[in-house]
Design goal:
Blueprint: E1 2-10, E2 13-20, E3 28-36, H1 40-47, E4 65-72, E5 84-85, H2 97-100, E6 125-129
Antiparallel strand pairs: 1-2, 3-4, 3-6, 4-5
């Protein structure tokens, strides 16, 4: 089985790629994307107007999405398979002091976000940590 994705290589340049369906790693879910919205921050990524500290090219955009869990990696609950889902976009570490206090937007583990620094949902499939579902 293959999976398509829209990749923004650099501002103003994109391509459609077809490759293998990503495999969920430990603690991750593989989601088949049902829908992905386009918001102004996606346009900023494409146009090159998003602060460079908050985007890593090449990138698959898409941080506002929904889908269905189709597989899970090691350590993830297999009962998640078949579940319709969305996920938090910010990929906070979950272990630093700020995260433990519930201030995940101030995570000291470094900035990571689906669709900006991590592959997003302008694709047939994406993987996300199950703790963010």
């Amino acid at each position: 089985m293959s999976s398509r994705a829209l990749v923004v290589d650099r501002p103003g340049e994109h391509r459609i790629v077809t490759g293998d369906v990503p495999m969920p790693g430990p603690g991750e879910a593989l989601v088949e994307v049902a829908a992905a919205g386009i918001c102004m921050s996606d346009r900023e990524v494409y146009d090159g107007r998003r602060d460079s500290a908050y985007v890593r090219y090449p990138v698959i955009p898409g941080h506002e999405w929904s889908g269905t869990v189709v597989a899970v990696g090691a350590g993830a609950d297999p009962a998640l398979v078949g579940r319709r889902t969305v996920a938090e976009g910010f990929r906070a570490c979950g272990v630093c002091e700020r995260c433990r206090c519930g201030e995940t937007s101030l995570c000291t583990g470094g900035y990571a976000e689906t669709g900006f620094t991590e592959p997003g949902a302008f694709a047939d499939h994406l993987t996300v940590p199950v703790r963010l579902l």
